Amino acid sequence: MRTTVTLADDVAAAVQGLRREEGIGMSEAVNRLVRDGLARPAETPAYIHDSFDMGMKIDVTNVGEVLGMLDELELGDQQGEVGSEASLPV
Description:
The protein is mainly α. 49% of the residues lie in helices and 0% in strands. The protein has three helices and no strands. The longest helix has 16 residues, at 63-78. The model has no long low-confidence stretch (mean pLDDT 85).
């Protein structure tokens, strides 16, 4: 395919450098550089999870139990009985 493209200065310099080093034409140099770029996996930064001690005062290892207790507390709030029977595990 023939087409006209405008190369950025750094890209044009890379093409010219490859042409000089390898003794190849413009099209071959552009094709090699494009293929090299397509073959490289995209660089993604490593995911780093920031964590810190929140000073939890309750045991939240059993999520189902905690959700059940929160539901009881919410139901108690709605009935005017603020946490009379529900207590969170410590």
